[in-house]
Every structure is written in C-alpha cells, then in structure tokens.
Amino acid sequence: MQDNNGRPAEDFLKEAIEHEMGGTDSPAFSEKDALPAYAVNRTSRKKFVIKDFDTPRDKEMAVFTHAKKLSEYVFVITERSPKKFRWSIVSRLQNTSIDVIENLYRANYEHDVALRLKYQTGAAVSLNLLDFYAETAKTKQAISLRQMAILARGITECKKLLSGWIKSTKQSKN
Description:
This protein is mainly α and 174 residues long. Helix 1 runs parallel beside helix 2 and helix 4 packs antiparallel against helix 5. The protein is globular. About 6% of the residues have low confidence.
C-alpha cells in the first residue's frame, strides 16, 4: 500500500520519527511544518534511532508493526510537550498507545474466537480514544498540527489493518 506521495505506507511513521528526532530534513516535510517555538532547541540531545520491527527473524502481522511504530511516535512527540500537560493529556496519549498494543497481543494469543473478538474490539476502541486524545492535545497545543496529522494517519492505517483482522476472525467463526 502506498500513500499520496508514492511511498510505502509504513514508511511515513519511520520518516516522521526520524524528522522529529532531528535526523533528517526529509523532502516530505516542508518548512511550513516547522516545530513549535518550545521544541526548537535540539542541541542537548543525542540522536535517537528506532530499529525496524519487521526483521527477517521476527515477522509479525502488519497491524502489530504499525501499532508499535505509532506508539513509538507518540512517545517521541510527547517528550517535548509542555509540562502542564504531562500528567493529563500526554500520559493518556502514551498509555492508550500502549493499550492498543496490549489488546493486539492478547487477541493474538487467544484461541477462543469470542475472546479474540473482545480484545480486537478493545484495540479498536483504544485507537478511537487515541485519535480523540491526539485531537485534544492539538487543541491544547501540546502537539503541533503536523504531529497530529501524522498521528491521525497512523491511527487510520492501524484501524484499516485491525478491521481486516476482525473481519477474518468473524469469517473463521462462521
């Protein structure tokens, strides 16, 4: 699957994380997408590298890979959020992103179809909550518009992959 720029869809989060960490000036991001004033000082920070989750030894479903990258991105962008939001919206964003992954793993290891559907639905609910928290964080200026757009795109991709998994689980139930 490709995005509007012809890049593979799974690469946008990796590029966004690298861009947030100051590793590249990707042509996918224009100067109008500059960081907010409180996030300009990057000199005191070491370069952060995220290893790709999809190695030949560890193949897993795409929904897991996307959810992990999405969670990693949430932690990267909330690292520089204003202190007044760290114990409210920022912690909710981080915890909900982890809840998505937790529910996915629980669903994957469940053999009972009804319980698997329950955990898959829980992951879908967590993705919807993550979308709400991202929108709220943008409204309160804890994250930038560009960061929220990248989050929304990652959430949408995870929702598509998860809905396909739910659909195949329901078909196997019948």
